[in-house]
User: What shape does this take?
Amino acid sequence: MKIHEKYIKRCIELAKNGLGTTYPNPLVGSVIVYENEIIGEGWHKKSGEPHAEVNAVNSVKDKSLLSKSTIYVSLEPCSHFGKTPPCCDLIIANNIPNVVIGTVDPNEKVAGKGIKKLIEAGKKLTVGVLEDECNELNKRFFTFHQKQRPYIILKWAETLDGFIAPNEILRKALNDKEQKPVWITNPYSRQLVHKWRSEEHAILVGTQTVIDDNPTLTVRDWTGSNPIRIVLDRKNRIPKENHIFNNEATTILISDGNQKSEDSNLIFERIDFNGTIAEEITAVLYKHNIQSVIIEGGRQMLQTFIDANLWDEVRVFKGTISFENGTKAPDLYSTLAEKQTILDDQLLIFRNHD
Ligand code: AOF
Ligand code: ZN
Assistant: This one.
């Protein structure tokens, strides 16, 4: 492996230590190399705290080596005064002569200005090492800044014959009589879904899904923070006793009227339901600085985002059960309960490259 790639790879590895705590900042890692040896390492741990480069420089024991070293950073060093001072100034002040950068910062406050400043200061620059990997590392941050919308993940589980869980199956199997969720997938995939929820900033579901399933939309089976719950409820049909109104997480309720909230955990937003709903919703999320959202149903909501081509990733669990086998509905329900431990659900993942 080429030498620059080796160290940027290490930067990416370090950056991942900040997963879940850097928002709204990106994940960034940095290493300082002197004569082919790493003499300092750092990553950005938390928004408001020092950037990766600062932690890397501070970790170097013999500061006199800095003027003969190369600093590697997975993201362009910043040039602006934000919550912390510019990293470019730090590199210049410490006389570090060589800078290797993974990718350019899409944040308009930086976006090339850091590179320009370093060139003007006479630094030897290499830009774009493992660029794709560095962009992928911060796919949510990049999408948010470049497309002015969150990174959108669509997720559902479906039976072999294409019913999506759980409300469609419920209606199909029980003819709308009973209100208990039915699962297509196994406990492991459910736990994985909770992990996924913890990785995203918000979770979105439609009205019917909330009414049918009364979901909590939290990460009960995983550690981590709950995403902000986004619920579409045009005509306020969702009963106030539903779990999504509990105070385990913040909820943003989107309807077509103006409403005032007395509860700090509940935010009302209004959109034009005659417009392109997917675009209207993403505009609300952008306004709230939400960098990523996982959309978990129902079918109509998922279809709306697919039709608008407003998605970045689709994750589908293909279950091993089907419904079109002529069995009577109540029997189907008990069969499902037995099959809860099936372990070979198939996971399909699609990426949108438009
Ligand atoms: C870097 N190194 O480790 C990070 C950078 O409010 P501040 O001062 O924390 O600045 C946040 C912005 O700085 C953030 O939006 C992104 O553009 C950049 N993040 N830059 O040089 C880092 N985390
Ligand atoms: Zn910085």
